User: Which sequence fits this backbone?
């Protein structure tokens, strides 16, 4: 076997590295990664090692290098179509001329705990909206005033319109050539790129309805064959929602970082 190959990507949170095409069953390859991780840790700085669907040996390699698990992301999938969405009061598509401030407010509050998603800003949003994959017809938002007025009818509590948006679901299409299913056949994926509901709107089925609306668009308009999304493995609220909708774990990605003693 030849020398190991490391790829690097600079992100807002530091350096992200990976080791493509490693033969983990070859001891010299695993030892090479261990040595390289130790060297990276000695260099200092914010750094993460990401690996997709890691075999068991990876945990031992990380431990030998003095690296610890930082994050575990699960990719969930299910076949499309799913059940049609119920009517959602106030549902419309995102308007970049009037919704950016409201979207940033709700997104950053809903993901205040998240190391990446919870720190969005105008510059980043403007850059993302110019990306080739963005389809504003698949970016759904819910007007808070309309949603509250339609869903609180009995007068037991006043409408809560602290946020301009009650929720949103931003979807993304992946053509068939970019993904494979378990059998190896190409499939087109409809992804829930990011979704959130305001705290005042929770408990009324809005999150589930938004997923259904987003995947209805991906199936009928974009031709997606499977629904896909990523979530943190310890996000129990989200996992319960997606399990109810028929999603199952497709694979897991793990991020490691140098431990305190590295």
Assistant:
């Amino acid at each position: 076997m030849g020398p190991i190959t490391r790829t690097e990507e600079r992100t807002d949170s530091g350096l992200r590295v990976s080791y493509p095409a490693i033969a983990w069953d070859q001891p010299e390859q695993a030892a090479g990664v261990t040595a390289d991780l130790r060297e990276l840790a000695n260099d200092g700085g914010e750094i993460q090692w990401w690996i997709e669907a890691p075999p068991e040996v990876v945990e031992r390699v990380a431990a030998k290098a003095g690296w610890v698990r930082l994050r575990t992301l699960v990719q969930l999938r299910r076949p499309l179509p799913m059940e049609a969405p119920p009517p959602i009061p106030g549902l419309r598509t995102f308007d970049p001329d009037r919704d950016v401030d409201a979207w940033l407010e709700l997104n950053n509050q809903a993901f205040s705990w998240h190391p990446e998603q919870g720190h969005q800003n105008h510059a980043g949003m403007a850059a993302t909206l110019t990306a080739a994959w963005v389809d504003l017809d698949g970016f759904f938002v819910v007007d808070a005033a309309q949603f509250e007025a339609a869903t609180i009818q009995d007068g037991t509590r006043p409408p809560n319109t602290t946020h301009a948006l009650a929720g949103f679901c931003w979807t993304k299409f992946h053509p068939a050539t970019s993904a494979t299913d378990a059998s190896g056949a190409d499939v087109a994926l409809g992804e829930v790129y990011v979704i959130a509901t305001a705290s005042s709107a929770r408990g009324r089925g809005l999150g589930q309805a938004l997923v259904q609306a987003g995947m209805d668009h991906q199936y009928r308009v974009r031709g997606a064959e499977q629904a896909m999304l990523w979530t943190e493995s310890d996000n129990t609220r989200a996992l319960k929602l997606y399990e109810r909708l028929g999603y199952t774990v497709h694979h897991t990605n793990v991020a490691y970082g140098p431990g305190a003693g590295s």
Observations:
- The chain has a mean pLDDT of 90.
- The first helix runs from residue 27 to 43.
- Strands lie at 7-11, 14-18, 47-52, 67-79, 91-93, 139-143, 165-174, 189-197, 226-232, 248-258.
